[in-house]
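Q: what does this look like with 2-acetamido-2-deoxy-beta-D-glucopyranose bound?
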Amino acid sequence: MLYLLLLFLLITHISAENLPIIYGHFKNGTRVEICKNNTLDCSDVAESYTVGEGSKEFLIWTPFGEPGKAGEHVGNILARALRQLVINTRDKKTNMDTIKGRIVVKSWSDMSYVPICQEDDPNSECPTIMILGTTQFAYRSKQGEIKILDGYFDKYLNDTHEPITDSFLKQVYYDYNIDGHFMAVPLVLDIRLLYFNRTTFDTLNLEYPPPYGNWGTYSEPYYLTWNWEMFVSYIRKIRQHFPNDLAFSFTGQYDEEMKLFHMIIKNYYIETIDENKTCGFLNNKEKVLQIIETIIKPIFSQLGDDWYPDNEETRAFLNNNDYIAPEDLPKM
Ligand SMILES: *[C@@H]1O[C@H](CO)[C@@H](O)[C@H](O)[C@H]1NC(C)=O
Ligand SMILES: *[C@@H]1O[C@H](CO)[C@@H](O)[C@H](O)[C@H]1NC(C)=O
Ligand SMILES: *[C@@H]1O[C@H](CO)[C@@H](O)[C@H](O)[C@H]1NC(C)=O
Ligand SMILES: *[C@@H]1O[C@H](CO)[C@@H](O)[C@H](O)[C@H]1NC(C)=O
Ligand SMILES: *[C@@H]1O[C@H](CO)[C@@H](O)[C@H](O)[C@H]1NC(C)=O
């Protein structure tokens, strides 16, 4: 059974006295003190971290441990948050630490698949909390490895007189509510950013995207006019004026295009899997095709042929300006 507790990420100004020491550990056995008196702006990294001298272990598994990924930096931030938890859980009488925090940076597949809390295996770790992505969570949940949090939420309410669920974003409120039980604390940490060039926008007299530009009115929400159609029309205007430059570009790896694609389709209220557990794309084929033709192709074709150097099919598709009618599509 995985003991999921709440970790309050409070990186506040902590006084330098009595600060729990954060140790960074390396696989070669070296241990170094990191972020000495520093509570802010400390970016020392290690392969795992320990904080506090108590007897109860509070183990955090944190992701992005693949070489070149930012896992150790996330670990550093967590270590500093854990410092606060060590302070908050000190014995009131003796002021001694009661917990010993340990943070281990794990790879994507370890986070998802490594067996945890195996009683018959002394080497099996039993994390107190894990920072899981949505798909990893689904797998762990299916394995029955995630503890129901209702009791902790009730305790939080009793202690603070505030429901912790009030702090959840409404968009993800029910994402981890399974069969009427809360199974996780949603934490949004993987987001996409849109950068735009103010000089270009000023030159062409384009309104900045929200929240900077003046979109929407009191009676009309901004997204009625700042939408993907407008985005495409802006790309066209920029391209016309700067024919030799990319009007739109994109940074991503792996499946990022697919994520952007999904986000766009979702903005038209088409779900990937709908309430009847069938494919929302297929059920809304005409609309999806229209979005592909009017939004996806104009945006993605801006990336240029270099984007898909080994994929002639994709290039041909993106550069094909002919509208493909739904009835002309290959039959499923
Ligand atoms: C162990 O690894 C760390 C990080 O790569 C390095 O800074 C340290 O010098 C190494 N220690 C020894 C004894 O090799
Ligand atoms: C850290 O704080 C201690 C006690 O306040 C002080 O003696 C020491 O010089 C500080 N170390 C650094 C690196 O600032
Ligand atoms: C609720 O809070 C009160 C006062 O803070 C405390 O005495 C009581 O034990 C708490 N009950 C539970 C179930 O945690
Ligand atoms: C922004 O666009 C202007 C032309 O509109 C260009 O000269 C400048 O290099 C661009 N800045 C960046 C950071 O790309
Ligand atoms: C799900 O099925 C019900 C019953 O057939 C239907 O009324 C409803 O429109 C379907 N929902 C979607 C999103 O297709």
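The mean pLDDT is 86. The longest strand covers residues 56-62.
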